[in-house]
Amino acid sequence: MTRELEFAVSEKESGERAERFLQKRGFSHKLIKKLKADGGLTRGGDILRTVDILSAGDVVKVCMEDSGAVVPNPGVKADIAFENEDIVIFDKPPNLAVHPSIVHYADTLGNLYAALYPESAFRPVHRLDKDTSGLIVCAKNKLAAAVLRDGIEKTYYAVVSGEITSGGEIDAPIGRADGSIIKREVREDGQRALTLYKPILRKNGRTLLEISLKTGRTHQIRVHFAYIGFPLCGDDMYGGDRSEIKRQALHCGKMRLRLPISGESVTVESPLPEDIARLLK
Questions:
Q1: What single string gives the DSSP state of each residue in 114-171?
Q2: pLDDT digit of tens for each residue in the chain (281 aa)?
Q3: Residue 220: exposed, middle, or buried by beta-carbon count in 10 A (0-12, 13-18, 19+)?
Q4: Catalytic residue among 79, 86, 91, 129
Q5: Are 116 and 166 a contacting pair, CB within 8 Å?
Q6: Which domains does the chain have, with CATH numbers?
Q7: CB–CB of 212/153 below 8 Å?
Q8: CA of residue 71 relative to chain centroid, distance
């Protein structure tokens, strides 16, 4: 896949070096170096060097080539919630892994992406566990990935066992549990983890929570709510009850972001899946 962009140099930017001009638009030093080596930077049809001085009225053209290396599988099912030239936001169902692996070689979101965009590398900007459902952003090029890396506001919804009557925060460090590659736990030598939450609905001895994360630790939501005595329904790894749902009741249901290139603010939402909603009926 080829993505071509043009940037006009303003009066204020006249006299800037090309590298500084591009860095202000989100291009990393590594990406600029790669574009330069590939001949992907031009001005007026001529190759542009990173040390060249720009003048007002110049138009800098960027040509980004991309290629994928994941086995395509159009049979994988996941709806598209939003898409433009630079990103695609999938509404991932539960029980679908994001990344191909030895266990999931050709039945992941990455394999679907490879089928839909065969000339683009698979770049999910954030993570969702296999059994967690909801919105996940994939960047169609390196610039979009760099711009979005820290610029997505995500809202999660979870159903926990027990009744939580007021909102709050959980500020407790998380690290890998001794003797396990996968399981995490709250521990003094872990990395700081901060989770904010508020109750939305209480029913059947359970609480639907709206959750936002200020850090991004592995299994953060699952670990934190188990730590305070309210494990997620279905999450048997951290003490959750699986009698009515066979996966953790966790869903990424809302996302706010500014689009790469245009800077337009976009909000995308995904309804609560039926298996989670059923816990509250």
A1: HHH-TTS---BSS---TT-EEEEEEESSHHHHHHHTT-EEEEEEEEEES---S-EEEE
A2: 678 889 999 999 999 999 999 998 888 888 888 888 778 898 888 889 899 999 999 999 988 876 666 889 999 999 999 999 999 999 999 999 999 876 788 899 999 999 999 989 999 999 899 999 999 999 999 899 988 987 899 999 999 999 999 999 999 999 999 988 889 999 999 999 999 999 999 999 999 999 999 999 999 999 999 999 999 999 999 999 999 999 999 999 999 999 998 999 999 999 999 999 999 99
A3: buried
A4: 129
A5: no
A6: 2-65 (3.10.290.10), 66-149 (3.30.2350.10), 154-252 (3.30.2350.10)
A7: yes
A8: 21
Q: Is 275 an annotated catalytic residue?
A: no
User: Which residue matches tokens 């170096």?
Assistant: 33
Backbone angles phi, psi at 196, to 5 degrees: -110, 145
**CB neighbours of 30 closer than 8 A, spacing ≥ 6?**
none
Provide the sign of the torsion angle of the four alpha carbons 47, 48, 51, 57, taken in this order.
Answer: positive
Are 100 and 108 spatial neighbours (Cβ–Cβ below 8 Å)? Answer: yes
